[in-house]
Amino acid sequence: MIHLQHIERIFLVGDEEVHALSDVSMTAADGEYIATMGPSGSGKSSLLNIMGFLDRPDSGSYELDGIKVSELEEQQQAEIRRHKIGFVFQFFHLVPRLTAFDNIALPLMLSGMKQEERQVRVNAALAAFGLANRAGHRPDQLSGGQRQRVAIARATIMQPSVILADEPTGNLDRSSGIEVAEILEELNHQGITLIMVTHDPDLGRRARRQILMVDGRIEHDKLWYPEETAHADP
Amino acid sequence: MQVNDFLRYTIYGLRAQRLRSFLTALGIGVGIGAVVLLTSLGEGLHHFVLAEFSQFGTNLIAINPGKVTTHGISGALVSNVRPLTIEDTENLKKLPQILDAVSVVQGNAAIEAGSHQRRTTIYGVDASASRVWRFAVAAGRFLPDDPPRAARSFTVLGSKVRQELFGSTQALGMRVRIGGELFRVIGTMESKGQLLGFDLDDAVYIPASKALALFNRESLMEIDLLHSTNSSSTVVAEQVRKVLAGRHGSEDFTITTQEKMLDVLGGVLGTLTIAVGALGGISLLVGGVGILTIMSIAVNERTGEIGLLRALGVGRNQILALFLGEAIVLAAIGGLAGLGLGIGGSWLVSLLVPALPSHTSWGYVVSAELLAALVGLLAGVLPARRAARMHPVEALRAE
Fold this sequence. Notes:
The complex is a heterodimer of chains A (234) and B (399). Chain A has eight helices and ten strands. Chain A has helices at residues 44-51, 74-84, 100-110, 115-128, 144-156, 174-189, 201-205, 226-232, and strands at residues 2-13, 16-28, 33-37, 59-64, 67-68, 85-88, 162-166, 193-197, 209-214, 217-223. Chain A has a six-stranded mixed beta sheet with strand order 6-7-8-3-9-10, sandwiched between helices. Chain B has two domains: 3-52 and 264-397, no CATH class; 82-251, no CATH class. In chain B, the strands form two sheets. In chain B, strands 2-3-10-5-7-6 form a six-stranded mixed barrel. In chain B, strands 8-9 form a two-stranded antiparallel sheet. In chain B, helix 2 (18-54) crosses helix 10. The longest helix of chain B has 44 residues, at 258-301. Chain B starts with a helix and ends with a helix. Chain A binds chain B through residues 49, 52, 54-55, 74-75, 78-83, 85, 87, 89, 91, 93, 95-98, 106-107, 109-112, 114-115, 154, 158, and chain B through 1-2, 5, 9, 12-13, 15-16, 304-305, 307-318, 391-393, 396, 399.
């Protein structure tokens, strides 16, 4: 459960104040599938960064699964981020010198898990994401879709409760994009809260709940039922 | 994060930029190599000089007349100084810990044999000298154990004097004139070489009482004592002080133990070694600057990775530790290579220039490696801190 209240985020550009987020309040229940859309600079990525507490709001409060995250120290936040949140990025952010296996194992390694245990978890993930025969390949030897699958495997290896995806298909061709979207949706079906930022209206339309951001505010926040889609778009 | 994972991650990072890492490590390697090589030479010199001095034995005590003090009026007490005498030597010989004692008078005089003449150093000693100073006789015998005040006119020649005066002809049994007095040669010494520029072979040994008469002296210049190795030199020196002070009425002499002299000498040479090592340290400093540069570049290049690690739940401190660790590992690898360079170098030096003593001490080797790691740590601090302070959102945007 994500609970944001009166979040403000102000950047200084030159000597001008830019309100990236102004008075944003929202709640995401466990297992929700939310697409955040809006034009460039509307604050949708800022919102995602605040949700993953990569960024601190200038004011307002943030609660994640009952923990008042905005009141915690950096080190404690890192600890919670490690266990509860998985990030998926537009440009994958794989470590170029590590193999697919090692990239997926990275969060486990950083948290100090023993090698034998890691082996089991990562091999299972590789199989689940259809990467079993790509384990020893480095990112530059993988296709875009495969890279993003490695990134998603890495984001979910710690079994987080939330996935924050920033334009996860933005750097992929159409078919790989759909493939990645389906993988993320499958994870959402398994109960993970999925919050996705996207430019792509087709991708956004797949989400049950859509948030439209304009100038740092939530313009629309509506639930979209598949039945309606069926009616509106026969 | 487990240590082996940490090392693996670090090594992968360094391996991704092989040439760059190699060159940077080489910088540290050269620095450490220089430190090890120079300290090896310093230590070699240290050992060499101490060995030169302890060839006379380490359980020696020297007594000189007069007392060196920092107070008192110079000159005023001189007339009260009782000279060291042959009787003092004989008395000290009776102390249980004293194995041997030798009276020493030294001076310069001409020695003539037939048509050859030479000015040389004359040592007035007694039979004990060859035992106390560990001088070995090449031919004949050393001065006999005559009563000290009634010694016969015998002399023993240093190897150089023998060579100069007699060449290849027989010297034993020949008569020589020393300062006008006739002496019979009863032995010649083995060559001892030089000690700090003094030719120990350009010397002639005659009985102390004869030397006193020759140089018209009343007192000895020095008494050298050989004490048993199972009693400490300070304890023996204290007993000697009591006996002599009793005989003289006051402490008008100076006792120097060989042990103490070697201590002082060792201290000086040790300082020299450290100073030479510090010179090598300058190149290590340059290597440190290399690490600083490369780590700064690495932090720049891996900004995206830093952002990712933060997103994966790595705290600032762990980022700091990762980059510090990388700098330390890089320096330590360079350091190990440097140890090889230094040890190999000093081996090569001892092979090519055998006269130049070199001695690689493990203490210096271990501290050189620790020093390399320390240089890595210091050089890594600035880049690692910059990495740790990066804003994760901005770092992620960098890629």
